Amino acid sequence: MLRRFYMKAAFAPCILAILLGSVVFAAPIVNGNGRPPRAVFLVLPDDIEPPKVSLQVEPFAQGKYRVQIDTTEFQFTDICVAQAQAAPIGHAHVHVNGAKVASAYQPVVLIGPLAPGEHVIDVVLRGQDHRAILGRTGLVQGTVEVFVPQQPV
Amino acid sequence: MHFRTFAWRFIATISFLVILATSADAHEAWLLTPSEIEELSVAPIPPLFRSRLFLGIAATMGFAVSLFALRLEASITQLEDRLIAPFSRGFADVAPLFLRLGLASMLLLAAFGGLPRHGTSMWTTPTFLVPDMQLVGIALAGALTLVQLIVGFLLLLGLLTRICGAALVGFSMLGLAVFGSAFGSYGLHFAGPGLIVIALGGGRFSLDQAFHSDLGQKVAFRSRKFLWRGAQILIGIGFVYLGIAYKLLQPTLLIAILEHGEMPTFGLPMPVVALVMTGVEILCGALLVLGRLVRPVALAILGAITFLAVVLGETPLFHANLYGALLAMLLIGRHLPLPFGSVQFRRVRVA
């Protein structure tokens, strides 16, 4: 009997209608909470104090730069997991002019060499599954501008 | 095939893979800049994705188009057969070759770290099948890398091909065990092609043909219908899942990625483009699960991922598993015809 129903022309439209109907019913419930995409953000619970980030950048040998990432309420670790707990533990992604250049598993990281000119260095704290940490005050990140002279320091 | 010819083809393939890998880029969330991530964190979900009225209208339109296409399926199939007929003699050779090379390239590059996660240096960190699954700090990382490497080389050579197909199905389950639900987005799109590899074997341009080493041929021949339909179902479910979990329920992420890649919208608002993409992915996946309009669906998905790859400037290697599988579906259609199993089967028996 099932086979006969399957062979009937109405089977596929029925399944499509059920699928689309379920989607139309369920999607507004999930999307209605307005949360940021969970594939990108690790949202900390409100009772956890969001970390703070400040950056210090110093010239290093061979045109490289040493970025010191000072954080509060955050623990660096080099252990990555597929699905992290919502906790301020993880590493940092270092971006120069918007492009990711390094992952920092400890508070000090070397980047560069950088081309002469102005550069904006952004550091975004990430959870152990690489998602960006989002506290109640927003994205946890630090930014600093660096000017690289023509002659390497 | 002469050894020298084979060696040249092998070297050329490896070189081609390395060249492709050097331009690696992806439509992952990791591409977004910090300012884009900051904007995304506060981006409101468009009303189009929150309203049952709008979603209902969109779903009704999608349903109507699907219904219309299903009504025309018989005539479309006749047209497909006429169009495909001139190439039909090459089916048994081309489809397995593309599938093998696509899968082999992903496995080998992943094992060598040549398909790294965005922002990770090339050739430094091996990954498991896809860039996101880094083999760092994971038990048996070395063993996983080695097994990937072996299966990749065997697929490239076309040696013990059907066994490699079974290994791919195993990888998709292993990935879930090792990486958990994060691997869920990828597993089905390796298990499905794995079943196709088992069903089709290595094809003419493989060492299995030269050495008569096509292990598992009898079993594959007997269960070819199950394998072929199974592959359609797994790949279809994969698309439905991705469409719902990553596009429909995270629309701001899709919109941010499209805006980052400066995707042409042809004058349409970006949420409308995102909703159309979402609908196409879900409906195409569902039709594959149902085994209906297989060739048009395969063509539509191939076109869509190729368009996205070109627009976003990403390497085709990120979808190499799907290119081969969808090409096989485009060439073969809903039912796997006998020549795939029987001709090769007879050849081996005679030998």
CATH top-level class of the largest domain in chain A: Mainly Beta
Q: Write the element-wise H/E pattern of chain A from the N-terminal end onward.
A: HHEEEEEEEEEEE
Please work out how many helical segments of chain A DSSP would assign.
2
Summarize the main sheet of chain B: none
Instruction: From the alpha carbons, calculate the radius of gyration of chain B and give it in angstroms.
Output: 21 Å
Overview of the molecule:
The complex is a heterodimer of chains A (153) and B (351). In chain A, 18% of the residues lie in helices and 42% in strands. Chain A is α+β, with helices and mostly antiparallel strands. Chain A folds into two domains: 2-31; 41-148, Immunoglobulin-like (Sandwich). In chain A, strands 4, 5, 6, 8 and 11 form a five-stranded mixed sheet that branches. In chain A, strands 1-9-10 form a three-stranded mixed sheet, with no helix packed on it. Chain A has a three-stranded antiparallel sheet with strand order 2-3-7, with no helix packed on it. Chain A starts with a helix and ends in a 5-residue tail after the last strand. The model of chain A has no long low-confidence stretch (mean pLDDT 90). Chain B starts with a helix and ends with a helix. Chain B has one domain (3-350). The model of chain B is unreliable at 17-27 and 341-351 (pLDDT under 50). Helices cover 72% and strands 0% of the residues of chain B. Chain B is mainly α. Chain B has helices at 3-22, 34-42, 47-50, 52-71, 73-84, 91-112, 141-157, 161-179, 184-200, 207-211, 217-222, 224-248, 251-260, 270-290, 294-312, 320-332, 339-350. At the A-B interface, helix 2, strand 6 and strand 10 of A face helix 2, helix 4, helix 12, helix 13 and helix 14 of B.
